[in-house]
Amino acid sequence: MQGIPFVLGSLLFWSSAQAACVAPLGTFIGAVAGPTINRATKATVDQDTSSVSLTIKLNGAGTMTRIGKSVAAGNYVFSLSFTTVSFNPATCMATIKTNAGEVLEVTAAASATILTGIDITPGPIVRVGFVRLEKI
To answer: How many Å apart are CA 78 and CA 55, to the nearest integer?
Structure first.
């Protein structure tokens, strides 16, 4: 008799798993902020804050526009494009690599309405920025 509640409890536990994540699609706006670091010396070489608009099309291509200010460079505006977004529905992680070599790794909620993540662009000088974007 004790085995039945355990089995039923296990079935209930497994049946309550979350739904699979969906790939982000549409336009997201938000912000990126954080220091720029020299990997070799670990020194902060700049501080950056920007507003971001990110559009992901059905085919995975898209654009990203950043409007911001850095301590070293002052005000800036630039637009980037990308041709694919790699997305893993099991982990809810998406990686976006732009034509300029910038790489953002974001996690999407199951509904893909909020993206949070980090800038993981490789190189000797890296932006350690936190990204938070909401779908509009």
So the answer is: 14
pLDDT digits (tens, 9 = 90+) for 33-47: 889 899 899 999 999
Residue type, 64: M
Q: What is the DSSP string of 13-49?
A: HHHTPPPPP----EEEEEEEEEEEEETTT--EEEEEE
Compute the distance between CA of residue 37 and CA of residue 12 in angstroms, rounded to an integer.
48
C-alpha angle with apex 44: 43 to 46, nearest 5 degrees?
Answer: 145
d(CA 71, CA 55): 27
Residue whose C-alpha is closest to residue 35's, from 125, 105, 115, 97: 125
User: What is the model's pLDDT at position 130?
Assistant: 83
pLDDT, tens digit (0-9, with 9 covering 90-100), for 54-95: 999 988 899 999 999 999 889 999 999 998 889 998 899 999
Of 70, 53, 71, 50, nearest in space to 62 by CA? 53
